[in-house]
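Technical note accompanying the year-one report. For the benefit of new consortium partners, we illustrate the data format agreed upon in the data management plan: each record pairs a sequence with a structure-token string. No post-processing was applied to the example shown here.
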Amino acid sequence: MAWEGAGSAAEIREEILKLGQRYLDAKGVAPFVPGETYIPCAGKVIEGEELRLLLDASLDLWLTAGRYAEQFERELPKRFGLAESRLTVSGSAANLLAFTALTSWKLRNKAIAPGSEVLTVAAGFPTTVAPIVQNNCVPVFVDVDLETFNVDASRLEAAVTDKTRAVMIAHTLGNPFDLGAVTELCKKHNLYLVEDCCDAFGATYDGKPVGSFGDLATLSFYPAHHITMGEGGAIMSNRASLMKLVESYRDWGRDCWCAPGMADTCGKRFQHKLGDLPYGYDHKFTFSHLGYNMKATDMQAAVGIAQLDKVDFFIQRRRENFARLTEDFIREGLDEYFILPKATPRSEPSWFGYLLTLKDGLKFTRRDAVDYLDQHKVGTRQLFAGNLIRQPAFKGVNYRVVGDLTNTDKIMNDSFWIGVWPGIDDERRAYMVQTFKTMIAELNR
């Protein structure tokens, strides 16, 4: 049955897009009720433009990566002063693709071989380290400090051996690690550097964006992160040769670099002789790596395009919330009970969360604190895996620890973080601080 009043396809499409925006406007946002409305520690801010572009991509019915993905891959690296990016299904996938690319046989004697050692930290998210293990390499763990929760760079030199080939570390909770010391170490020992920037979109070190210091950088676009496309991630670099390897592993391991739906981009589709295949075997179905299919969809990328236009505002809101929480905590004397987070020297973080570590000798535990906050509708998270080597997944994993992991264990036992994401406004932040005050009064008797 025809829709009454239907016009051209273009007119109907525009009406659908307008209705999507009207729907979100009509839906509105529920008012905040202190003590009743839950304040998550992370979340997304989605508005009419995101839905409009999502609907626009959906109406194309292309379904895989297309025009929006191409646009996103062009625009994203500009914000990091980088040349190229590749969109993928998640930040974890980005880490896997970035590290795996460095093991490619095409790098010849520069490839990271099985059994190589990679410097990293145990205080963080598991999928920063998992790619090292999944590529049959050995993670080498060093401790972190308790104020920046990043790698203690003074310990890295002692961790280097003749087997060390790379450093792969995250900028924890949006706070850059000591890039001066780390890049100097990498240069001295000819090591690859993979920067996990999944929590740190927009952070800078010496005025230069994180992600622009290493050989490869990764991002996550999960709903908790600085921008979102639901699921999604990206790999970035200035090194075209490495990005070609990333793309190969992402796109089934094929040698061809044609975009989805395209063929014969190189003009030599049937003129290659690779491996033991016959001359002229279809380059589009020639595989140079044992790869995956980790492409994102155009619908995801469309949401990302809308979010990318707002990321500067999101970053500023995070920084403002962080600064005001610090002011409030110090004013209320809460720094007597918690080690407050601090920016790494020479850096400007793009805060993902506000990490608090209980000082020694208190009358209450971390569990007491997070239980109280949860009951009073203030969301918390611990610092991801705490200490990775204590996790069940690392039983039987071949790793090495240099020195002790005293601070990592302290974070595992005594740290948690609260939100600074853009959805936290003045009213919510004031309630959070007041809840901490009443918590201290009740738990520290």
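Partners are asked to follow this layout when depositing records. The chain has two domains: 56-308, 312-443.
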